[in-house]
Amino acid sequence: MSERKHELILAALAFALLGVMIICAAFDVPDLFAASKQQTEEETFSFSNERALAVEEESTTPANGENGGKVNLNTAAFEELTGLNEIGEERAKAIIEYRETYGRFLTAEEITNVYGIGESIYESIADRITAE
């Protein structure tokens, strides 16, 4: 091969390598989003902790006379929840998990959003629960 062909091949390889480097650099942008992703995770963790603390602070239940003897879904302890008809240990855990994840129940009927509690269970306990 002539010297001219070698130079052309080397120049072509150099341009090809340069193109590959530019393309790789263009797609190597995870570092730009890493900071925002980390911030979002920290905000979520912080929000979860704030909600958990709020639930803990509200965990004192009022005397039976104050809410007509109903179990307050927002403040009830595990034992109070398991005292309800058809609410065993697993459903009580699910109610507390839901409360810690999503915050306060706005209405008693919102308990149907908890896994394992449907309309029929809600109807059987509706007169014994409240969301204050």
Structural account:
The protein has 132 residues and is mostly helical. It has a domain of 80 residues: DNA polymerase, domain 1, CATH 1.10.150.320. The chain contains 5 helices and 2 strands. Strands 1-2 form a two-stranded parallel sheet. The longest helix has 28 residues. The radius of gyration is 30 Å and the shape is rod-shaped. The termini are far apart. The relative contact order is 0.10.
Topology:
Layout: H1 3-27, H2 30-57, E1 71-72, H3 78-82, H4 89-102, H5 119-125, E2 129-130
Parallel strand pairs: 1-2
Order of helices and strands: HHEHHHE
Question: Helical region count?
Answer: 5
Shape: rod-shaped
The end-to-end span amounts to 89 Å
Strand order of the largest sheet: 1-2
CATH architecture of the domain at 51-130: Orthogonal Bundle
Number of strands: 2
CATH class of the domain at 51-130: Mainly Alpha
CATH topology of the domain at 51-130: DNA polymerase, domain 1
Rg, nearest Å:
30 Å
Average pLDDT taken over every residue: 79
Are there runs of 5+ residues with pLDDT below 50, and where? 60-65
Q: Structural class from helices and strands?
A: mainly alpha
Q: Let me know the largest β-sheet.
A: 2 strands, parallel
> Helix proportion of residues, in percent?
55-70%
CATH superfamily of the domain at 51-130: Photosystem II 12 kDa extrinsic protein
